[in-house]
Amino acid sequence: MTDRHIPKMAELAPLLRPRRPSLGPTGRRLAPVASIWDLREAARKRAPRAVFDYTDGAAGEERTLARMREAYAGVELVPSVLRDVSSVDPSTTILGRRSELPLVFGPTGFTRMMHSEGEPAVARAARATGIPYVLSTMGTTSVEDLAGRVPGANLWFQLYLWRDRGAGSDFVRRAADCGYSALMLTVDTPVPGRRLRDVRNGLTIPPSLTLRTVLDAALRPAWWFDLLTTSPLEFASLNRFEGTVAELIDRMFDPTATIADLEWLRSAWKGPLVVKGVQSPEDARRVVDAGADAVVVSNHGGRQLDRAPVPLEQLRPVLDAVGDRAEVYVDGGIMSGADVVAAVALGARAALVGRAYLYGLMAGGERGVRKAADILGGDIRTTLALLGVSRCADLRADHVRLRSRSSG
User: Fold this and answer.
1) Residue 6 lies in a domain
2) 268 pairs with which residues across the strands?
3) How many DSSP H helices and E strands does the chain contain?
4) Is the pTM of this model over 0.70?
């Protein structure tokens, strides 16, 4: 029989560790966050539904998005034990420059719609983390403004092929003049994908004040106050636009673009050239033959063609197709540092994320993006150590197994 007694205060004192109250709503919102999924939930609670769904959603029935996440959920990591992992170095080299993680903050459109701090907040978090950040053509900060506000960041510029080739040439020149270290051409948007959440929510750029949004504003006053009391949304690519995302893509992007346009871009841009949106070995060979220094195996986060191939599953065929002629990156469905490690073990030089840091931006501005970077970086270091690997360069394909759905 267990002897019981009423504990004395002296016995309880060592157990009493009250948590310091966080100062401000952002601190309180971010304090319990431990994963990207937690950031997603914090973002969902803070942002209006239409804005959150723009980030969170995908095309059609969103089968591609679900399959991408299922692919990473099916990854099995195989550790090697009794290895010295007292010091773990997760750095790598991306396009000839050191990156502290095998990670790139990828390009996202309308970023200031998520939080007024927008692209500069993301770029500052990337600079602090020591990784590249890609400014989108559809970003809400200009090429010059971002470079001026975040000196020392490893900035890339993402370009779409425009109907107005003169505008495209101007962007290439401006990015070069501002010291952007790489140019990324996105090739999977000849027409806009059917993003049904945006259609159902009636999303416009900028968000319109309709009866629905006014009711939503009553539930999320901080977000609307932030939007309405800061500078109007403007874009890296045009002074102002009012309409839906699909209307903007139809107006700006060129569905007649071919491999000849990539060859033109190669002649116009003297630095590293990355092609994003490659989904087959054949296309990987074509773009590398046309001068690409790197390819991103990507289906636009499942936001263009629903039922498109899963990038993680296409990674090996693309690597086999290009060999050592180009670096290969991957994106889509990545929600943890373990996902990044799996992609690198399977042969990717680095992984790109978009939703992961946008959840952080929506939840807490720059502090939220830094939280996302810290979570991913911590995951990467822990996963490497538990695999018995002290450097990214030592990751091998046999550290990973892809389990079929039927295998559990």
Assistant:
1) no
2) none
3) 18, 12
4) yes
